[in-house]
Write a structure and sequence with these properties.
Blueprint lengths: L2 E4 L5 E4 L6 E3 L26 H10 L3 E4 L23 E3 L4 E3 L5 H11 L2 E6 L6 H12 L5 H8 L10 E4 L14 H18 L4 E4 L12 H10 L5 E8 L6 H5 L1 H23 L6 E9 L2 H8 L20 H16 L4 E7 L8 E3 L5 E3 L3 H10 L3 E3 L7 E4 L3 E4 L1 E7 L6 E7 L6 E6 L8 E7 L19 E2 L4 E3 L2 E6 L3 E7 L1
Parallel strand pairs: 1-20, 3-4, 3-12, 4-7, 7-8, 8-9, 9-10, 10-11, 11-12
Antiparallel strand pairs: 2-15, 5-6, 13-14, 15-18, 16-17, 18-19, 19-25, 20-24, 21-22, 21-25, 23-24
The structure holds alpha-L-arabinofuranose.
The site of alpha-L-arabinofuranose has 10 residues, from loops.
């Protein structure tokens, strides 16, 4: 079977919400300290933030950033992170067995977000705290003044409210590792109560209830059903989290990870719609895919994990995966999966942003650099504008150990109705062969290729590291040509490609 697809603006899936290109900063390892914040660094600004990191984050094109966790948030007291720095307590961070100094808190992070041009998305602690503390944080953050907590924010140097729109009702509450882990029934009740309380302050907040930590949790599916049965009328989103890694040298299955992500999204949508049907509701719940990435999690459990009652380091090196070319191809494919479901996935957060399973790495006192995954994210964020389009892809298939028979290729297109610009994102999962793809673009006249780039390398394990920060980058794909209403483009083995036309 030859590889063919069609780009036609009439095949729109839905508008692409910019929040699809969000990320995640957790107080974990060297994400904040020695990552975005390093007062002694030669590029540090007056607030101690690394300018080289600010520049890389700005170039990545990140919309909303979820903060401050993650597992961290389930033991977090937000009050520790505001007020004079010298009075802020040092605390045990049980999630990552570290010491949290609270040097960077809500005010500092919001100021950093202004520098990188991103929006704040806050998670509240529903693990070891409850509705009242969530209300307190909302009052502190969003009320202009005239109350104890809003006046405290003003006294702490921020006259204007933070005006946080997106709020996560806890984190991964289905996970036995989570501080305050609950049953779906117990969590559904506290999430509903907290959501109602937050809406009494501001009915227009956008609220995210916790879905499953992965589609492979034993409670997956039932968790979503029970939690949404409690919270359907109270929330706007249910979260999905998914991490993928190559296991046991099975590259074929790893390259097909997006097949799993597609299935995950479609299953959660079906479950949410089922709950809506039972309730006789016309409302739709969207997905906030607020943690996704490639993550070699087995390495964390095997090597990195910190233990010892007298051992609570500050900003240890944790989850510092170096991403290969193959990892970046899978990563680019995960972005294709998100775009293919843009009608229901209207928010997503790449987990995470700096040093911790991140597209950006730093060395204390030294350079900051782009990992391989930086390239598909930055390019997709820049080019995927307007509506996501279904492309009716015809592709050869191959057989994987984990997912059975899967397409060799995957693709999604976007179309901007305002400018007429079109973008096409593709992956080739074939480990040996290039594939030429023929694209019918006859529905639009006069399009020419304005940019065509691929991420691939003869060495699929190549990565950017401290010792060679620019080993891997995007390569121009000169094969992309338009003739007689057809675009053809050749995809190298194990590659991710973006083509833009206007
Ligand atoms: O992103 C790393 C961790 O993965 C987060 O803290 C947690 O929510 C998830 O399990």
């Amino acid at each position: 079977i030859s590889a063919r697809l069609t780009i036609d603006p009439r095949f729109a899936v839905g508008p692409i919400n910019r929040r699809l290109f969000g990320s995640f900063v957790e107080h974990l390892g060297r994400c904040v300290y020695d990552g975005i914040y390093e007062p002694g660094h030669p590029t540090a600004d007056a607030e101690g933030f690394r300018q080289d990191v600010i520049d890389l984050v700005s170039g990545l094109g990140v919309s909303a950033i979820r903060y401050p966790g993650g597992n961290f948030v389930s033991g977090f007291r937000w009050e520790d992170s505001v007020g004079p720095k010298e009075e802020r307590p040092r605390r045990l961070d049980l999630a990552w067995h570290s010491t949290e100094t609270n040097e960077v808190g809500l005010h500092e992070f919001a100021s950093w977000l202004d520098k990188v041009g991103s929006e704040l998305m806050l998670a509240v602690n529903l693990g070891t705290r409850g509705t009242l503390e969530a209300l307190d944080l909302l009052e502190y953050s969003n009320i202009r003044g005239g109350t104890a907590l809003s006046d405290r924010r003003v006294a702490n140097g921020r006259a204007e409210p933070f005006d946080v729109r997106m709020w996560c009702l806890g984190n991964e509450m289905d996970g036995p590792w989570q501080l305050g882990h609950r049953s779906a029934d117990d969590y559904g009740k506290i999430a509903s109560q907290t959501a109602k309380a937050l809406r009494q302050v501001d009915p227009d907040l956008e609220l995210v209830v916790c879905g499953s930590s992965s589609a492979h949790m034993p409670t997956f599916g039932e968790w979503e059903r029970v939690v949404l049965t409690h919270t359907y009328d109270d929330v706007d989103y249910i979260s999905c989290h998914a991490y993928y890694e190559e296991r046991g040298g099975d590259l074929g299955s790893f390259l097909a990870s997006a097949v799993d992500m597609d299935h995950f999204i479609e299953t959660v949508v079906a479950t949410a719609d089922h709950v809506g049907a039972v309730k006789g509701s016309t409302k739709k719940i969207d997905i906030s895919f607020d943690e996704w990435n490639v993550w070699y999690i087995d390495r964390y459990h095997g090597v990195d994990k910190i233990t010892g009652v007298d051992n609570w380091p500050v900003a240890p090196r944790l989850l510092e995966d170096a991403y290969s070319v193959a990892d970046a191809v899978v990563f680019g494919n995960l972005m294709i999966s998100l775009l293919k479901h843009a009608d229901r996935v209207t928010s997503a957060s790449l987990a995470q942003l700096v040093n911790v399973i991140a597209p950006i790495m730093t060395e204390p006192g030294g350079p900051a650099w782009k990992q391989t995954t930086y390239f598909p994210f930055a390019t997709t964020s820049r080019l995927a504008v307007g509506h996501a389009l279904e492309v009716r892809l015809e592709s050869p298939t191959y057989t994987t150990e984990v997912y059975g028979e899967v397409p060799v290729l995957d693709a999604v297109a976007t179309h901007d109705p305002e400018t007429g610009a079109v973008a096409l994102f593709l992956v080739n999962r074939d480990q040996n062969e290039s594939h030429e793809v023929t694209v019918d673009i006859s529905a639009m006249s006069g399009l020419v290729v304005t940019e065509a780039v691929s991420l691939w390398d003869d060495d699929r394990s190549a990565a950017n590291t401290l010792h060679d920060t620019e080993r891997v980058g995007l390569k121009p794909n000169d094969s992309a040509t338009v003739e007689g209403g057809r675009l053809t483009v050749t995809l190298p083995p194990v590659s991710w490609t973006a083509v833009s036309l206007s």
